[in-house]
């Protein structure tokens, strides 16, 4: 049947000839197609009359039924039946172009059902997968055959949905332990992955995210610990070295909370260390030279510096200046040695 998709012109007589050979009767002879207009619907206990079997001359119909509308080409359909129910292969054409193909089992769609961009490229537009008449998956394609969306179903409920951009996964919706989530993927103009993020659908809270440089190296990495209600963000340089490590709390919005670190680009040594309590400076703040030597240190309590003086050191551990602070943490005096080693003090 694969050659059917390639047929563009004069498909009607070819389809008709093929449908004649599709199904043999029980006696081994070829079963000629029967017009659907010659079939009768039998009354039954099904919820919908359309689900009741078809009969031909008083007996359940087994064979091929065809339907034609419009001259000279118009719409044409051929469907296999067994014991009055659609069973086997079915196809339809419109104006000599393939319109739809499907498979049935005991009157229910089973397997792949495909509809086509019959008026333009002839490529598949919708591809649906069925089990016992229930749709399980669905794909949508543009006229060039590039996928634009995908959906997956369980018990007739949508459990996964993907939107595509230029054939690349863009937005994904799915469920984890009954919770609806969404994943976003964004790309650079050249097609390289720029970011990959996971969110809680209900409140759009970010659970995980990775962003990338154009060269494919990891740029940032974020993870949210729901039990602790804490988030961690790591930032990397284009050389692959860790640049920053920040922690966040939620109250209710995300804000800096806990230890915050930054690192020297050349050797990865800690360059600064800070501590916050839900966005407020609280704890020790330290700055370092890239050789590991302490530059300066200060302590915050509820956003205010408690130190009476702060010493700043050079890379060799020598004091280069001293700052004196008042009770509100404001610098009142600054002292530094002159070229002769004598300390000079200035206000403010």
Automatic annotation (TrEMBL):
Q: Does the keyword Iron-sulfur apply?
A: no
Alphabetized, the UniProt keywords read: Signal
Q: According to its UniProt record, what is one Pfam family this protein matches?
A: MORN_2
Q: Which residues form the signal peptide?
A: 1-24
- Domain of life the protein comes from: Bacteria
The entry's protein name is MORN variant repeat protein
């Amino acid at each position: 049947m694969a050659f059917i998709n390639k047929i563009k012109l004069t498909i009607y007589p070819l389809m008709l000839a093929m449908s004649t050979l599709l199904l043999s009767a029980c006696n081994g002879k070829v079963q000629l197609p029967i017009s659907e207009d010659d079939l009768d619907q039998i009354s039954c206990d099904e919820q919908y009359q359309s689900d009741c079997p078809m009969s031909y001359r008083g007996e359940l119909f087994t064979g091929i039924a065809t339907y034609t509308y419009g001259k000279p080409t118009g719409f044409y359909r051929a469907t296999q039946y067994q014991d009055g129910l659609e069973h086997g292969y079915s196809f339809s054409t419109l104006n000599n172009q393939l319109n739809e193909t499907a498979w049935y089992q005991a009157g229910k769609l089973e397997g792949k059902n495909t509809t086509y961009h019959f008026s333009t490229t002839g490529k598949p537009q919708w591809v649906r997968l069925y089990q016992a008449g229930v749709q399980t998956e669905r794909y949508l394609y543009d006229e060039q055959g590039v996928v634009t969306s995908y959906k997956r179903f369980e018990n007739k409920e949508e459990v996964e949905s993907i939107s595509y951009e230029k054939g690349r996964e863009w937005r994904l919706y799915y469920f984890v332990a009954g919770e609806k989530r969404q994943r976003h993927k964004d790309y650079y103009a050249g097609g390289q992955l720029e970011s990959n993020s996971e969110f809680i659908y209900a409140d759009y809270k970010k659970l995980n995210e990775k962003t990338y440089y154009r060269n494919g190296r990891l740029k940032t990495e974020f993870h949210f610990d729901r039990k602790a209600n804490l988030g961690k963000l790591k930032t990397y340089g284009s050389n692959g070295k860790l640049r920053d490590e920040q922690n966040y709390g939620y109250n209710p919005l995300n804000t800096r909370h806990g230890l915050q670190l930054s690192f020297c680009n050349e050797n990865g040594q800690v360059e600064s260390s800070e501590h916050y309590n839900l966005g407020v400076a609280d704890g020790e703040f330290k700055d370092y030279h890239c050789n590991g030597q302490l530059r300066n240190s200060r302590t915050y309590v509820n956003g205010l510096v408690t130190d009476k003086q702060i010493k700043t050191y050079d890379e060799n551990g020598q004091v280069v200046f001293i700052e004196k602070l008042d009770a509100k943490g404001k610098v009142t005096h600054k002292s530094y040695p002159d070229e002769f080693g004598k300390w000079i003090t200035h206000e403010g």
